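WARN retry 2 of 3 for item q-0093 after timeout on previous attempt; input resubmitted unchanged.
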Amino acid sequence: MTSHNNGDKPPWTEATIIDIKTFGSVRLLRLKVPLRSLTFEPGQWVDFNIPGVTPFTGYSMLSPPSLLESSGELDLAVKYSDYPPTLWVHEKCCVGDKVQIRVGGDFYYSAPPPASSPPSSTTFCERGQGDVLLLAAGIGISPIYSILQHYLQRDHHEDRILLLYSGKSATDLVFKDEIMELEKHNSCFTATLFSSQDPVKQSEMNHIREGRITETDVKEAVSSLNKALVQAFICGPPGFLDHMEMFCLASGLHKDQIHYEKWW
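OK item q-0093 returned
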């Protein structure tokens, strides 16, 4: 389990918004920063500071670190609300606008070090060893999607990664098409999607279930993995976090195998 770290923060980096897409109540932003001006781990967020708008706020990266490393770009997903910075993103933000960002957060997944690296005292979570269980609800998919893409870019896939992802409806599953495409091309990855409130169309029943993620769903997922080494990453609203942690513990995972970050 992880917690918000309010220690020393890195300096602000100027970023330019170079692309904007809207999917229902979610707006996707692509930002450009100077190459090598910042780095992040999959699962982390950025403080997002808009000139002339207070206060600043935080949004999780949904792109993998490799995009930033190769092109100096990163993606954010912002769900609509009347909170001033979020309202600006949805109603005033334009391509070419400049903002300031800085990386933060202790909730992340890292790939294992090279075989030649010296022994490390880091946890399995930080070294990226063993199977991975991802649990997401709503816009909480953002850091989870970053972790998923990063994991699947590894050179070897002897381990497995499972995703349970819930939205109020099928249309709220923002990256469902991309996730299903990743599953199609990666034998180590299995995704189960849930529509917690709205009925699922007949054409989508093969890959979306009706209802919420249950304790049974989590137990079945954990039982299909190497329980001793599995790491669970959870992101979603408060009630979802509490229930998923409880389900993971009931499935036999220890607290140090369960990772999430509370910012409220």
